[in-house]
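Support request from a user on the community tier.

User writes: "When I paste my structure tokens into the form, the page sometimes reloads and wipes my input. The last time it worked, I copied everything first. Here is what I submitted, just in case something in the input itself triggers the reload:"
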């Protein structure tokens, strides 16, 4: 929490509070304490912070939310917005008193979640902790502000269908509406010494701040209960011209809705009009206001004017965005439902200055990396930092793992320009890897696992063109050098046990590969992965071999995925993929392992061509499993799947998918498996366990178990 000098804009003090987040701070009347709505592990409560010492006291501790606190003038009570707990209370301890409740509780019942709950306004006695309701309407009541020595309160409510300002008489237990804005008013506050009311309003597609220095007259206005939009079942509606509506403080039906979104001017009523209207009613005593929209709204001081329509405050009407002549000066228009603007004692005040937007990057994410020590390398420093501007138009990512020297370090920096419809990105990188693998970073394969080190450094670029909500066209370029060291002999020191690797050869390859991709994604996810819709992409890339070290190839790839819910929480997922590479240095594709052919070893099959198909039936297995020993614990949301995989890898002209014998057709080069799996979250990690059996369509062979962390395809 920061305390700021409002005049100089300087931070005077920083108060550290051990919580997950804070909002809506409010000063106590004596200025010694601040009440704030704080979050502790997803639970929102009120705390009281001592400004001098930084110590805080937790005023509430329950599953309900306490928001937007405001002190009463005596400093002994706090008004706040109260939102009750959404779910029925579940005992957290298993004992004799709660055993029967837990035993009979149906965790799958729909009525466990309460419906039609709304925000209300409560008060809290600080010394005793007693809470009492102040305002409870069928709508959302929010943002209390206390004045008149604690006897009255201004707040917002949408009980009429639109957020407007209300006054509550706390001594009489009554409340009434004082504004009739169709665009919504929010977050009111009062300064009684200046007779001032402030609030925000939704105007012209944005939120603006408004000030009224006529608080006392404004709180005398009263609008009838009912919808804030004319014609929506307003009680007492008498004719289409809105004469009865005007007397109730409601907008008449001939007022254009555009008038409420900007400035409005008001035309004086025609006092010479008399007689009966088309319904036979005498309207000679009604004042009919004609409202027309003018230019856009801005921030002004707002002075409320109550039209003279009678002595009864129930019938007071506030003209929509009126302009008037006061003391010979033209005043500024306000917002709909808040009356005319200006006043004889103060000049026009615009309240804010529009300045040209300046680019300033600030951290969005700073990783949990730091200093470490590794045998053979010594000390290192690693972290990831993501930055962006406030509009999200510019983004940067910096990731690094600095150790020993630059050649042995990992460094990545990237920049994305997202201001326009077309997105651009560029990045520079260097990665140092020590591998025991059958494949290198440029896509070449080795017959056996090899020990080698790579130093890859270069750049990448991206141009992404959105064609529709679900389709885009991507142009990418990667260009880098790959310096490799291969080690063939490993010797162990018989005394120290230290391993020595003998370098057999070095090589350098250069990859310059532009690509173009068409991407479609119209899928809907649950917590484990996609369950409805489709995703697919098709891409082609060309490796440009400038010299002997350059990689020369053409590669194509197609991946299509379809998801369909068959009934509640059960779905079928299907994937088919094809890939091929041609040229002097064709890329190698691999199959086998937990994400492709689950009945075979990881990367068991390779070739310059690849085909794969997977089909899964996904369903919930366990919603909640509560165990009683040792202690009360359990797991929940365990999903399961039944699957079938088939695929093959091959080189040019080498595929023979089937063979025939006297018993019929069986797979030859095609590989297949079937099995089942379960998946669930352990903290932030999605764990997948799968057991599969190999098959050739006729017989079932060895089983194979796989495990991985991550979502389903």
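"...and here is what came back when it finally went through:"
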């Amino acid at each position: 929490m920061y305390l700021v000098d409002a005049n100089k804009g300087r931070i005077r003090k920083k108060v550290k509070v051990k919580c997950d987040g804070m909002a809506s701070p409010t000063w106590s009347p004596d200025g010694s304490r601040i009440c704030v709505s704080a979050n502790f592990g997803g639970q929102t409560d009120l705390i009281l912070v001592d400004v001098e010492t930084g110590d805080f006291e937790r005023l509430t501790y329950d599953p309900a939310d306490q928001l937007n606190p405001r002190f009463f003038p005596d400093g002994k009570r706090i008004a706040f917005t109260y939102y009750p707990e959404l779910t029925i209370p579940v005992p957290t301890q298993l004992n004799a008193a709660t055993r029967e409740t837990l035993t009979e509780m149906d965790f799958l019942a729909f009525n466990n979640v309460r419906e039609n709950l709304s925000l209300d306004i409560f008060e809290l006695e600080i010394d005793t902790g007693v809470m009492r309701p102040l305002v409870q309407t069928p709508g959302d009541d929010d943002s209390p502000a206390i004045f008149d020595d604690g006897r009255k309160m201004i707040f917002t409510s949408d009980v009429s269908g639109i957020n407007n300002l209300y006054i509550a008489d706390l001594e009489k237990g009554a409340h009434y509406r004082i504004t009739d804005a169709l665009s919504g008013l929010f977050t009111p506050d009062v300064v009684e010494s200046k007779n001032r009311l402030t609030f925000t309003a939704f105007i012209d597609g944005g939120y603006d701040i408004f000030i009224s220095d006529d608080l006392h007259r404004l709180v005398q206005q009263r609008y009838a209960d009912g919808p804030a939009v004319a014609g929506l079942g307003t009680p007492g509606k008498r004719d289409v011209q809105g004469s009865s509506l005007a007397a109730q403080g409601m907008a008449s039906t001939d007022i254009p809705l555009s008038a409420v979104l900007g400035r409005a001017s008001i035309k004086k009523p025609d006092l010479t009009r008399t007689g009966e209207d088309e319904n036979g009613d005498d309207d000679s005593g009604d004042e009919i206001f004609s409202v027309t929209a003018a230019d856009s709204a801005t921030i002004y001081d707002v002075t409320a004017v109550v039209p003279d329509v009678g002595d009864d405050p129930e019938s007071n009407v506030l003209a929509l965005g009126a302009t008037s002549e006061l003391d010979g000066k033209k005043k500024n228009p306000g917002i709909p439902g808040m009356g005319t603007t200006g006043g004889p004692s103060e000049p026009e005040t615009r309240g804010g200055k529009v300045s040209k937007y300046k680019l300033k990057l600030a951290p969005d994410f700073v990783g949990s990396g730091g200093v470490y020590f590794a045998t053979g390398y010594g000390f290192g420093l690693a972290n990831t930092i993501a930055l962006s501007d406030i509009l999200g138009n510019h983004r940067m990512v910096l990731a690094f793992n600095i150790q020993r020297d630059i050649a042995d370090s990992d460094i990545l920096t990237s920049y994305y320009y997202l201001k326009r419809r077309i997105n651009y990105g560029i990045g520079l990188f260097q990665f140092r890897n020590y591998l025991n693998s059958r494949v290198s970073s440029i896509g070449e394969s080795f017959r056996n696992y090899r020990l080698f080190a790579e130093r890859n450094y270069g750049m990448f670029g991206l141009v992404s063109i959105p064609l529709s909500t679900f389709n885009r066209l991507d142009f990418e370029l990667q260009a880098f050098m790959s310096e490799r060291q291969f080690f063939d002999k490993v010797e162990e020191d018989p005394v120290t046990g230290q391993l020595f690797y003998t370098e057999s050869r070095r090589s350098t390859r250069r990859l310059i590969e532009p690509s173009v991709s068409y991407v479609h994604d119209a899928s809907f996810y649950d917590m484990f992965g996609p369950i409805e819709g489709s995703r697919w992409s098709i891409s082609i890339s060309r490796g440009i071999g400038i010299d002997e070290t350059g990689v020369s190839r053409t590669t194509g790839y197609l991946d299509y995925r379809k998801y369909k819910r068959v009934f509640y929480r059960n779905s079928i997922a299907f994937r088919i993929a094809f890939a091929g590479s041609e040229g002097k240095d064709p890329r190698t594709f691999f199959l086998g392992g937990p994400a492709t052919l689950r009945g075979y070893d990881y990367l068991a099959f390779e070739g310059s061509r690849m085909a794969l198909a997977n089909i899964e039936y996904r369903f919930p297995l366990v919603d909640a499993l509560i165990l009683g020993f040792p202690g009360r614990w359990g797991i929940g949301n365990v999903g399961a799947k039944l699957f079938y995989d088939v695929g093959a890898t091959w080189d040019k002209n080498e595929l023979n998918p089937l063979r025939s014998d006297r018993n019929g057709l069986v797979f030859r080069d095609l590989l297949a498996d079937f099995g089942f799996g379960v998946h669930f979250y352990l903290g932030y990690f999605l764990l997948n366990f799968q057991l599969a059996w190999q098959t050739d369509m006729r017989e079932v062979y060895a089983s194979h178990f796989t495990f991985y962390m991550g979502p389903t395809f």
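Agent notes: The reload is a front-end session timeout and is unrelated to the input. The longest strand covers residues 499-525. Residues 228-333, 339-351 have pLDDT under 50 and may be disordered. Escalated to web team.
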